[in-house]
Amino acid sequence: MDKFIIKGGRRLEGEVTxxxxxxxxxxxxxxxxxxxxxxxxxxxxxxxxxxxxxxILREMGAEVTSLGKDTYRIDPTTINKFCVxxxxxxxxxxxYYFLGALLGKYNKARVSMPGGCPLGDRPIxxxxxxxxxxxxxxxxSQGMIDLTADKLSGNQxxxxxxxxxxxxxxMLAAVKAEGLTVIENAAxxxxxxxxxxxxxxxxxxxxxxxxxVIKIRGVEHLHGATYAVIPDQIEAGTFMVAVAATKGDVLxxxxxxxxxxxxxxxxxxxxxxxxxxxxxxxxWVDGPLVKTDxxxxxxxxxxxxMQSQIATLLCLAEGTSIITENxxxxxxxxxxxxxxMGADITVNGKVALIxxxxxxxxxxxxxxxxxxxxxxxxxxxxxxxxxxIEDIFHIERGYDCMEGxxxxxxxxxxxxxxxxxxxxKPENDKAxx
Length: 433
Ligand code: EPZ
Hints:
By secondary structure, the protein is α/β, with parallel strands linked by helices. It has helices spanning 22-31, 48-60, 86-89, 97-106, 125-133, 164-174, 190-201, 233-245, 261-270, 307-315, 335-339, 370-382, 393-396, 402-408, 429-432, and strands at residues 2-7, 13-17, 39-42, 63-66, 72-75, 83-84, 108-112, 137-141, 144-148, 156-158, 180-184, 205-207, 213-217, 226-228, 249-253, 273-276, 280-284, 294-295, 318-324, 344-348, 351-357, 364-366, 386-390, 412-417. The site of ligand EPZ has 26 residues, from helix 1, helix 5, helix 6 and helix 12.
């Protein structure tokens, strides 16, 4: 088992380059299935969720060639299997994008119910609503979702909730459906726009991505394309918070400042200085951090995927901050771990009350999900003493060489492998006598 060991108290200084966006890449890679020709995808982050996508594509019969650390050539014309088995799907929530892509291309798909971060109930009713609206039928049995359609025809789809995954899946399924599909109450995240731009670069006809109404006119044929994934908004935000937590001064490169607006505004309220350039931002702190309230919301609101990271920063601010988590019902599971580091946080339902103590202390902690793990890294960087983080596989699902990037900024962080703990046997109380 791998873990991170962090010696806290070092300021982050220098420059860091952000990788491609995880939540765009895990949709764009399956989307290549829709093409009738090979595609080249660039700026792909080197993370385990992407490696699982590549494995699934190869398992289906696609030819995937690595053209360098972040570039893949994918030929989908050799695909001869239309199923994503449980062994892969359970490791990654985004496996459900293979449903939309396979249905959109072959009028059929068979994918295991998705896995992913344990954030509470993660239904897929809106995905199924989108698929059935354009003519698909589905069955759920033994944890597998089976989709079939005689023909896919454009239709109106109105989402009951704003959902990134279902918006992406609706686009994937409808892009070749005959006629016009209109998605209303669509999610507007940057990765939604990135997927639409990729599909349009293959010859699709999608308008309105990034607004709450997306119109898709089905096309017969999608040709190959070369496409670069956008920079990761959440990785950039995570580094912005890490610099603030260590009162550092860093130039964060390969970002789209517009995608970071809600994060930038919130950090400036907390007392962080931010200077924006065309494709980079400078982040530094030269004064106290102050309490601020945060409410998560769909884009362009404050991203839920930044909630645990900003909570960690607010532990270091002076005063009482309130965080309201409006997207996921169980996204405060990291709080217990931060409390082990001296955080004073009270959670009541979807609200967390943070009493800023101005400091944290190193401790052994465990990552319970991807962004919780990122928050613990930030806490360890800012804490006095040593922090050991277990279950870092969560972090490596979504961050491309986090420890290497942090070390290059001056952090004292290393990844060590330790033998998996044998199941601890309960003490034999007779022996105590
Ligand atoms: C995506 O998850 C992201 N994952 C999540 O990021 C992110 O937290 C989330 O969007 C919100 O931005 C990927 O893109 C792979 P949703 P997704 O569908 O698509 C409800 C990370 O850290 N809902 O937008 O699963 C749902 O319960 C991960 O990178 C339904 O009710 O999220 C939630 O309350 C964690 N029915 C809300 O919508 C559905 O059919 C938003 O979920 C689908 C969703």
